[in-house]
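Writing this down once: the sequence line spells out the residues, with the fold written below as integer tokens. This is how one looks:
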Amino acid sequence: MAKDSEITATLKVLVLNAENLFIFMEHWKEEPIAQMNEIQWQKLNSGLIGNKTLSKVQALAATITKISPDLIMLTEVGGLLSLENFNRYFLQNLYQPYLLEGNSDRGIDMGFLLKAPWSGKIFSHKDYKLPHAKYTNFSRDVLKLEVSLHDRLVANALLVHLKSKLNSKGDDFEGRTRRAVEVLGLSEIIYQLPADVPLLLGGDFNGVASGPTPEPEFLPLKHKNNLQDAALVAGLPESERYSYVYFNQGGLRIEQQLDYLFLNQKAQESLLKESVTFPHYTGAEGQLIPMPQRSWQKILMPSDHLPLYAEFKLKID
């Protein structure tokens, strides 16, 4: 039976790789953005990196607006200004942006959008020393957002974008060594967090981090931290557990889950299992954007990753 002073609130969470969300508008003169064509949109930005295609930005915003999450955990964001512009001009300024610049050499950072009455406090681990002679820091960061309601801490949200499998220098096959070192550091950070506070570990893991045959570098999250994938906790069918689609050399479509929301025991107890899904994108006009069936169709997607959504019924003592 709940205490008289105990209340509950539902936190709606969206994990999203926004794929190069660069939005710079230094030449904007308050023209209606919705009426711009792509050339006009790109002219707002005088930087070396162009803006994300306007129709794709609008589709991301339409999808988010339809879902209406309280907390958005974003990867591949072009800095705080891009996040602020996305919130202000495409999401009706409904959110408070949180972003700290990380170690990315591509200018893609991670950040949070948090809707009132929830409030947050952000922390970086970009200078955290990893246990390796060569890979001494995270390739991006591990961002922590302390999520509070009525000045009471209700959850810790950790956001990651682990090393990808791209290896242009040829010195680390599929980035496995660096990714494994990053997971070891992440595991130690998690180990230091209080177990009695719900932990939401989300982001782009760039590998198979859960399921019956996870890649070995991710095993510390289960064996040391006892974290579980929200999609598995919810019992989501395997056919629906994917956030990324690619096509092999033979043109065969392959579905993978690269984006996760891992939960500690307290968060698992708070999870509303029926809420967990990988939503498909909605266009600016409200139409459902179909998943690509051919490799060339991927370019039509607002992002090359699907989002992951979950709800939590949190206790506020």
DSSP finds seven helices and 14 strands in the chain. The first strand starts at residue 7 and ends at 21.
